[in-house]
Amino acid sequence: MTQDNGGRGPEDSADSSFFHRIGAFFRDESEDGDAAKQLQSAMQNARAKGVIGEDSFSMMEGVLKISELCASDIMIPRSRIKAINLDEPREQWMREARESGHSRFPVIDGDFSNVIGLLHAKDLLYSLLDPDYKPREHLRPVKFVTETMALNQILKDFKTEKQHLALVVDEFGEVAGLLTIEDVIEQIVGDIDDEFDTEDSEAKNIVPEGKNRWRVKAVTLLEQFNEYFHTSIRDPHCETIGGIVADRLERMPRRGDSVEAGGFRFTVLSANDRQVKLLQAERLPAPALSPAPDRK
Question: Which residues form the CBS domain (predicted)?
């Protein structure tokens, strides 16, 4: 006897199977204990069968990925944080704040060993319009997170506490970097550009992230990359770093893919169904030299 499926076709069955497996993942019904891999496999099958689109697949993959990333993976390093020192002349920090295009600024007293609060752009506007306005009296509290804190927990805290920015501290309590809610969300949906982002700015194509680690736009020309790092990556078929990654993979790169070239490991941070957008470049340790044979 053939079991009645209620008139559902093959696509309905695939849809049902996919969401059943997602439900099983969250109920922790996996027998082999590797639920995350099972879920990713189910997502890949659903994408192949047309149950979910490429963009949806990319975002779902990003949701899974942020649980594996921590604050230090995406933070802006301390050297690039635009902070306001209220001890400096008002004209100076107002000019720097305006040129940065940011909407929130950590406020320091001397240096980053003494962070005293957070100022919004509208606070700076009040300060500009009213010479008697005292920014110190309108500071907002700053959120601090550790370098090892998972991005999914940070995103949850941002939402619960209605925060948009956090300073990242190392094991000694020193400020190591900064991240925003936008930085976390971009790990799921890809780059979010605003009117202050300059896509064609070569100065922003390569951004230091930490020791031996950089964020690199996929459109970065090999010539620019080689000049910046004093390397000699060449390929007669590619002009950009993104092209090198796609060429090595021999398929369209996806978030999380990685390849090695020219002494670097390139990991895809952002991509869509047409192109890779953002990479993490990590300099690999130099191979150990074999000891020279003894000569008698």
Answer: 75-134, 138-195
Distance CA 284, CA 267 (A): 13
Instruction: Choose one of 186, 221, 247: the last residue of a domain.
Output: 186
Q: In the prediction, which pLDDT does 126 show?
A: 80
d(CA 36, CA 64): 8
Which string of DSSP letters, residue by residue, matches 115-178? EEEEEEHHHHHHHHH-TT--GGGGPBPPEEEETT-BHHHHHHHHHHHT--EEEEE-TTS-EEEE
| Global confidence as pTM | 0.56
Strands, DSSP E only, in 44-103? 76-77, 84-85
Could you tell me the pLDDT band of residue 24, with boundaries at 50, 70 and 90? low
Q: How many domains in the chain? A: 3
Domain harbouring 277, CATH code: 3.30.465.10
**CB 103 within 8 Å of CB 120:** yes
How confident is the model over 102-126, as a mean pLDDT?
A: 86
- Which residues are bridge partners to 266 per DSSP? 259, 281
Q: Which residues form the domain of 216?
A: 204-283
Cα distance between residue 183 and residue 155, in whole Å: 10
**Does residue 67 lie within any of the structural domains?**
no
Here the tokens at position 242 are 């993104």
Query: b/e map of 78-109 (b: 16 or more CB within 10 Å)?
Result: beebbbbbbeeeeeebbeebeeeeebbbbbbe
In whole angstroms, give the CA distance from residue 139 to residue 157: 20
Give yes or no: residues 44 and 103 share one domain. Answer: no
* Contact (Cβ atoms closer than 8 angstroms) between residue 117 and residue 94: no
- What pLDDT was estimated at residue 103? 82
